[in-house]
Amino acid sequence: MPRFSAQFGRRVVLGIPTAWLIVLFLIPFIIVFKISFSEVRLAMPPYAPLFEWADGKPVAVRLNLSNYSFLFTDALYVSSYLYSLKVAAVSTLFCLLLGYPMAYAIARSQPTTRNLLLMLIVLPFWTSFLLRVYAWIGLLKSNGVINNVLMGMGLIHEPLTMLQTDFAVYIGIVYSYLPFMILPLYSNLEKHDPTLLEAAADLGARPVTAFLRVTLPQSVPGIIAGSLLVFIPAVGEYVIPSLLGRTDQLMIGRVLSDEFFANRDWPVASAVAIFMLGLLVIPIMLFQHFEKRTLEAHK
Amino acid sequence: MKSHGLFSRVALVFGLVFLYVPILSMVVFSFNNSRLVTVWDSANSPTLRWYQALISNEQILGAAWLSIKIAMIAASGAVVLGTLSGVALARFGAFRGRALLAGMTTAPLVMPEVITGLSLLLLFVALEQTIGWPKGGGAVTITLAHITFCMAYVTVVVQSRLVGFDESLEEAAMDLGARPVKVFFRITLPLIVPALVSGWLLAFTLSWDDLVISQFVAGPGSSTLPMVIFSKVRLGVSPDVNALATIMVMVVAAGITASSVWMRFQARRRERDMQLAAAANL
Amino acid sequence: MSKQPNGQSRGAPYVRIENVTRKFGDFVAVNDVSLEVQRGEIFCLLGGSGSGKTTLLRMLAGFETPTSGRIYIDGQDMSGIAPYDRPVNMMFQSYALFPHMTVEKNVAFGLEQERLTRDELRRRVGEILDIVKMGQFLARKPHQLSGGQRQRVALARALVKRPKLLLLDEPLAALDRKLREHTQFELINIQEQLGVTFIVVTHDQEEAMTLSSRMGVMNQGQIVQVGTPTDIYEFPATRFVADFIGSVNMFEGKLVEDEPDYVRIRCEDFGGTVYVNHGISSAPGATVWVAVRPEKINIARHPPVPPAGVHQPDAGQGENVVRGTVKEIAYMGDMSIYLVQTESGKTIRVTMPNVARHAEDRITWDETVYVSWHAESPVVLTR
What we know:
A: 299 residues; MetI-like fold; 13 helices; globular; B: 282 residues; mainly alpha
């Protein structure tokens, strides 16, 4: 019965990962969603159940929106969300400004050096993210490498405060996410037809004009893909702001973590998460749309 | 055109310096005898004392071993699941629930880890309430969590490899009488092995390096290496961490160099074979 | 030398395609095709890209399912039967050799499902590789072989299972000219030796004409004509077929006389009348097309005079002849192609063998010539 076994095989191949993801990815989100509506309790788990059961039937539903209104009224949350969006956006911009010319240079290099360069870009990624962020502490702190070098050269007399500033966070994010910006940009730029630029030059366009009118528009999908790959996770970043960032203004990832572990307020933490997700849903869907398009272009 | 190329090449050099200076500074200072990591103690340096301290640090070694174990299991699980979903998405055409599977496998790529970590912990707590397992977390919960978010990466790698794969090879195998399972194991799988290997390595690195999700779902008594490192470095720089970093960089650099040498050797041999065949003709 | 039409008994057809249609959404790739192929034939499906020939082939192999209709192979209905359960094997256009296996393993792959002893397996593999003359390349991998060698391995792999039907997708497309000719004859020899039924899909008419014992011309998802190469070439059923195969001169005209044993057609196209010595089924006054092949046309400096003693049936003076000027000549060595422009502006293509060796004797550019043809040469087409 060949037909039957083929169908059955298909179901197994499909079913296993789908089932796994539903249990370990989808359902957790539903739980977070549910808990964001409940109240905090001094219990384990520290939240009130949503439904009151009696005789096996739900008799009361406690839908608590106070967690969400809390988000909007408390200055801590509003400022954290806005701050996170701002930091992520600025970092993404810096990452793009540095990553684009790098990707461009690699795409235009000789094929032999190209592989070497790509390897050099990707190699840091394989070493620990945590450790590389940590490395910046050593560079940026008051008696760190940069300050020591600058003071030793006589350029400054007082150490610069670089750690625990916005600046440090920008550096940290750009540093960690640079490969994620470069690779999609490179794979886009690599496919450009060099004869188009020759045609532009032949028609009288200066190099800058040719770049702005020919190369840049074609590279937009790569720019979008790279930027989303940096921006979305950067909004919820935890490690970088914890090690390098300000203590007076927290990013939302820190807030969520503190709410959860320090305050044990799981409902509010859940509300923070859901709202963050809401903010990011559109960029995430945009990203998935572009993922699909790139895959189909390969076919 | 010349000036243009110059600007981007300068940016490239600057970028590469930017990428490597922190790593190099960590390596250099791992040999520094001073506890104030970044103040070079020229009298007593270079020294291996931090490496010796590292070897005898039970906490770090234990955490490293746990991280390796988790990463190996998680990477293997992620490869199995990621291959299944990659095959489904690349080969099954349109099926009911395709959008769901596609969405679930690409979302973790960009989802902030705090959200993933939180949601998984809440799941485990709810599970413990209803069926009494898992009890208080532990290596199991971390492994399950890691498999889940790593499989997304493996899916993307496998899917893009399969999409570019010559389907006529699989059709030829079926035409010759092989059932789909045999086709997959005898034809498809051997030819996508490089993608599976890089997927495994990718998953291993992500699991081994993960902090946020582990912090959320770990139970008492299970500390992974990133968790130990993080609690140390929150308080400031620590020279044995530099030593650890150096070891990791060396291992990674050696691995990457070895693999690229191997690949170039393979490519050159292939080229030679093809030239011989073309010269022989008919 | 073309394949002789198969003289085997006209029993039940070996392959029967019954009203098969394949739609992709709104697009109809194969439109209600019915076809019968006899056992031991080499049948070619000839068509341009988009004609549906490849889709039809893939339905025979089992990679596509007909939207409607049925396919029978050796009397067995193939509906719902997967490719791996069909007594059919296919030789792919790209050869699709498994790159990670040796030649021997590639060929042996298909036999692994059959319960053979190792010796038996090795014998069968060796046997078929000897037939395609690849016996000494057992241990090579595909990337170590040239294009022609890979093709032979692909053929061996498809034949080793002794399938009832072998499907070939553009088998000669990837080969250079010399190799192509050589391979054409080899394919025919192997087919005769093994007696397998071949169905070949190609866009190359020369290939189709050389290989097939019978062929079918496809256009836009339908089979337009089926027959031997001679049938198709000399008796095309439609303008499309006449134009698709070889070169043809097509004149549009009006049927002015319609008798059982002759017809006359007035063609304003070239400003003359065509007399054809057989009847056609149409009505007087109808618009028809007259197709005359270039090699059937004679080119001369003087209008033709019916030679004494030869019965030129009833063609009137000035019929089947046109005056024109030689505009282009392509010298091919053994023959020349002349493009003659008539006074009405129509270009007529004529091919003539170069009988005269000396240039002065041959017709040259800008000469005024008379092109003419015999009354039985034209084909009259109503569609």
